Amino acid sequence: MSDGKTRLGRLEPAAIGGVMSRELANFRTYWRGTTFSSVLEPIVYLIAFGLGLSATLVDDVGGVPYVQYVGTGMVATAVIFSSALPAMFGTFVKHRFQNTYDAILAAPVDVEELVSAEMLWIACRASIYGCVPLLVTIAFGLDPAWGMLLTPIFCFATALGFAGFGVAMAATVSKIDQFNYVTALFVTPLFLVSGAFFPISGLPEGLQVLAQLNPLHQLVELVRGGAFGFEPIDIVRFAGLVAFAFVMWRIAIVRMEKRLID
Amino acid sequence: MAAMPAIELRGVVKTFGPITAVDGLDLDVPEGICLGLLGPNGAGKSTTMRLLTGQALPDSGELRALGHELPGDSKAARAEMGVVPQLDNLDVDVTVEENLAIFARLYRVGDIGAAVDRALDLARLRERRGDAVDELSGGMRRRLLLARGLIHDPRLILLDEPTVGLDPQIRTELWTLIGNLRSGGTTILMSTHYIEEAERLADEVAVMAQGKIVSRGRPAELIAQHAGRETAEIYAPPQRLAEARVTAEAAGLCVRPAGPAIAIVGSERAANGAVPEDAVRRAASLEDVFVLLTGEEAE
């Protein structure tokens, strides 16, 4: 077997593009439902949390109206739910039930290219869906800012990492219902302590430290930076997201090679 | 100098935990022939196919396909071979045309439109090109699966149990398509456990059992070598079948079960009385060879 460096050199755009074209062809058959829920969910959340809570309990957080605070935070929610979950379930179904990967790997496509293409596709999609809550929040009164134009890039880097996480999980579990553990142990806590709905400064100190390691928290901070003004630390936050994506990419490839190659 | 075989396997071993799926397999497939890999379930046929596509890695041994070392150069080999899997893994919500175009891209085909049109003609699905796969009949889906494996006009085709589980009409349709490929000079390695499929399509048959090739040759050669000219089938109550078996075996003849009957293989060599008068005599077949060599009932 070749080492890591050699394998990186083997990533072929034609193979990656071919796998992504398959995803695009399938997406054309179900995009309406996915897009509908992606647009409706932030509207419902903003009405329920934003308008409901701000009218009764919280008026603003650090000077930011609560509707806008939640709206910008919900970008992270949209990203994790449109990256980690599709990666987990989609990968598992394509491998175990549809035998799609057997067909693709019989063509001149390596596992590394297959995983990269799947992650890239999910990240592209999530970077678009991730922007929807921001657009909805603008409709709810958030002033547009130039920094918001970087939101798709922040979402893309984060979604890439969570897509890798989902693929790695799909390659690890033996039954589809084991995703309940993954969701309960990782996905839900990550989005709850991301700072999307409340500032993490309100958490116990230990959890605050852990929250700093949460990529979703970094995404939330970056999106709010884009909306309300960046800070120098945001460069470090973005570098952290890129590192997270890279590490998850390699882990996903290793896990899938174990799963797909006997 | 002899032409290089399309497939060359030397001493290939593949184990899964305590199970040895492929056990020191030696196999050459010359260019331009259709080789039928005939064996019962669990003989190691599908594992051999997966070794050839790089989806399984050998524990030991040497593999070459179309001159490429496997698994190291597997990607280059896969670019030149087409694979038709045992299980239907088409994208069911996507159109027939898109299913083909996706694989044309994966195989880096230059003119995707022309390749798709050619594949549609081959599968006789031109009229259904815009329909979702979900709307096709079982036979159409199988033809599409075959056309997908041929989208890049491969030099070598691996057919893994191409007609398993299909009804006779669809099976015959596919046999016609595979027969046309064979006539066109494409090298084909076809795994099957259907005797009739191997007999009809394969230039040569390699009988596989417990991970090894136990015999190989043209169907007529295998029959002559292992089963002789004639087989006598005896249909009778169990008691009488048991007596007939003892008598035949005492005369040095091979006896095998044949559903409700027993078959005495090589009955032309039988001395007087070794084969009952009311036995049904027929020409020896590849099925006789299969059962004698693998110990399994044929399908």
Topology:
The complex is a heterodimer of chains A (262) and B (299).
Chain A (H helix, E strand, L loop, with lengths): L3 H5 L4 H44 L3 E2 L2 E2 H16 L2 H14 L2 H7 L4 H19 L2 H8 L11 H22 L6 H14 L12 H8 L2 H14 L4 H28 L2
Helix pairs in contact in A: 2-3, 2-6, 2-7, 3-7, 3-8, 3-11, 4-8, 6-8, 6-12, 8-11, 8-12, 11-12
Chain B lengths: L6 E10 L2 E11 L4 E5 L6 H8 L7 E6 L2 E3 L3 H7 E4 L11 H11 L5 H12 L14 H12 L6 E5 L7 H16 L3 E6 L2 H7 L2 E6 L2 E6 L1 H8 L3 E5 L3 H13 L3 E5 L2 E5 L14 E4 L2 H9 L5
Parallel strand pairs in B: 3-8, 3-9, 6-7, 7-8
Antiparallel strand pairs in B: 1-2, 1-4, 4-5, 9-10, 11-13, 11-14, 12-13
Helix pairs in contact in B: 3-4, 3-5, 4-5, 5-6, 8-10
Task: Write up what this structure looks like.
Chain A has 262 residues and is mainly α. Chain A has one domain. Helix content of chain A is 76%, strand content 2%. Chain A is built from 12 helices and 2 strands. Chain A has a two-stranded antiparallel ribbon. Chain A is globular. The two termini of chain A are 14 Å apart. Residues 1-9 of chain A have low confidence and may be disordered. Chain B is an alpha/beta fold and 299 residues long. Chain B has 2 domains: 7-88 and 149-223, 3-Layer(aba) Sandwich (Rossmann fold), CATH 3.40.50; 228-283. Chain B contains 10 helices and 14 strands. In chain B, strands 6-7-8-3-9-10 form a 6-stranded mixed beta sheet, sandwiched between helices. Chain B starts with 6 loop residues before the first strand and ends in a 5-residue tail after the last helix. Chains A and B meet through helix 2 and helix 5 of A and helix 2 and helix 3 of B.
